[in-house]
Amino acid sequence: MSPCLTLDSLLCQAQGRTLLAIDRLTVVHGERLAIIGANGAGKSTLLRLLSGFLPPASGALEVLGRRMDSPLPPRELRALRVEVGQVMQGLHLVGRLSARENVLIGSLGRVSGWRSWLRCFPADELTRAAGALHSVGLLARADTRADRLSGGERQKVAIARLLLQRPRLILADEPTAALDPAAAAEVCRLLVAAAAEATLISVVHNPSLLPLLADRVIGLRLGRIAFDLPVAQVDERRLVDLYRPAAGDEASLRPASAAIDPPARLAALS
Amino acid sequence: MITVRTLESRFLDRFAGRIGFLALALAYALLVLACLASLASEGELTLGRQPLANLVKTAGEFARPSFLDAWFGNPHLEYRSDDGTLLRVENRQEVELAYLAGLGRATWTTVRIATLGSLLGALLALPLSVLTARNLAAPRALAWPAKTILDVARSIHTLVFGLVLVGIVGLGPTAGILAIALHSMGTYGKLFAEAIESLDMAAIDAVRSVGAGPVQVFFNAVWPSVLPQFVSSHLYVWEFNIRDSTILGIIGAGGLGLLISEATSLFQWGRLATVLIVIVVLVAGFDAASRRIREALL
Q1: Considering only alpha carbons, which residue of chain B is nearest residue A76?
Q2: Which residue has the higher pLDDT, B152 or B295?
Q3: Which residues of A touch B219 (CB under 8 A)?
Q4: Alpha-carbon span B205 to B202, nearest angstrom
Q5: Alpha carbon of A153 to those of A180, A190, A265, B190: distances in Å?
Q6: How do the domains of chain A map onto residue ranges?
Q7: CA atoms of A221 and A240, how far apart (whole Å)
Q8: Which key words are in the record (chain A) (predicted)?
Q9: A108: nearest CA in chain B?
Q10: Which of A16, A240, B177, B233 has the fewest C-beta atoms lying within 10 Å of its C-beta?
Q11: Chain A contact residues (CB < 8 Å to B)
């Protein structure tokens, strides 16, 4: 199996603070990887690195065979992004365009010139878009504007866009944030289906969704990898350890975090 | 001593806002008083010699708009001199019909002035608004002059532009079109810049994240979010200009304003009433249409 991405002694800093320090990480094609960790642990930073929105300070980073140690030239960066699909926290659509047009944006990597400017997409892409919307169950809402859709529907449109984009690597940053449990499970199911032929890396906050989204789980704590395990071996104790406040601000953070983090609250009760 | 000072500062902290507002309100009241008192002392605060009688007379003539004569006018109105000689005979119906035809042409002129002036203003404002929109961060050397041009254009009234332009390009609709364009350019620039500033960055990121090039990002994310706002501002200013251009005729730009100044200088209140009815219908109709379209767009 060829590696989809490799990170080697990677360091990422902002304003003198280390956001991410990873010694070694390899993900092979077709893996389902989930990244968990408290707020500020570096999860989103890692995703931004992988999609080329942020360059690393030092170390080696290779994504889909492209070395990204230094910022890529725009043309190469765009070529990379064609192959990297992204699902963000529900805000990642063009609000004024219809669901169908948002799905068609996924084909911009293939469609060029005036057709992509006037949004006159070729017939086969239109058929594909309708098929993608059908498979996420939104064909009936295809011509509704994206900003009139519910949170769950918006995520499904983003997934349908992935189906059209057909990327080799999918990055999902808290794709189920602000969704009710049923919608969250549905979105996870669709996301995994969309990633059938791709590598899927997702940032997850809700531990109960881990088995749906991943076979391998990486716990990030203060920018470092705390554990890297198959999903079956991630137990309560590891989650409590992962979400435990850092030593410095333990006293000030404990009451608040105990109230917010489900694992911490469980630990407090037991 | 220290406690007194802290008490004092605490008092100030708590009431500083209200005291400031009170002072402003007081200053405003003083200004109003000064205006009234000075006008009164100059003897200018009067309503003329017979305000009531004049009001009744004018209102009476207003109540019978001249267009009614086109149907109900005397077809054989005789003008006679004091000794009873017949001077001439006039068909009131024909005269008023001819006036209505002229009114139609004037209305069309006014619409043409407003439409072309608005379009020209919008086109002139477009590049300037791109330069002044803060989120596009144009170089200051360009942004500052652009902002100054827009501010100056907005602060000079259409009528003033019109007076100056009549001297340059002569009497006629061209002066009106240019006057409307120059003044509304300032308004357009501000509205367009605000539309650009409220751009949805998440939409841009969404399109960029699938590997779209800059032109594709423009047409798929920037254009769809900005265009409806541009069209909406255009309709709004256009509607405003329809109203504005009715007055431009007074300074010689042609259109309805010319008929207004004609009717007022001849004290033909009936005709003025006809012209005003046309203006109200025109503006209200355009207002309703543009509101419909704007609601559908946003």
Answers
A1: B211
A2: B152
A3: 116-119
A4: 5
A5: 12, 12, 31, 36
A6: 3-234, 235-270
A7: 12
A8: ATP-binding, Cell membrane, Membrane, Nucleotide-binding
A9: B212
A10: A16
A11: 51, 78-86, 88, 91-97, 102, 105-106, 108-109, 112, 116-119, 161, 165
Class of the CATH-defined domain B111-297: mainly alpha
**Residue A57 backbone phi and psi in degrees, to 5:** -75, -45
What DSSP element (H or E) covers A202?
strand A199-203
Q: Of A3, A2, A1, nearest to A60 (Cα)?
A: A3
Amino acid at A136: V
> What is the percent of chain B where pLDDT is above 70?
96
Lowest mean pLDDT among A237-241, B54-58, B250-254: B250-254
Which of A111-125, A131-145, B92-106, B228-242 shows the lowest per-residue confidence on average (mean pLDDT)?
Answer: A111-125
Say yes or no to pLDDT of B1 above 60. Answer: no
Rounded to a whole number of angstroms, the distance from the CA of A201 to the nearest CA of chain B is 16
CB contact under 8 A, A108 and B207: yes
Q: Three-class SS of residue A225?
A: strand
Which letter does DSSP use for residue B218 in this model? I
Are A139 and A130 contacting, i.e. CB atoms less than 8 angstroms apart? yes
Q: Which residue has the higher pLDDT, B15 or B72?
A: B72
Per the CB < 8 Å rule, is A94 touching B228? no
Residue B79 scores a pLDDT above 70: yes
Examine the pLDDT at A99 and tell me if it is beyond 80. yes
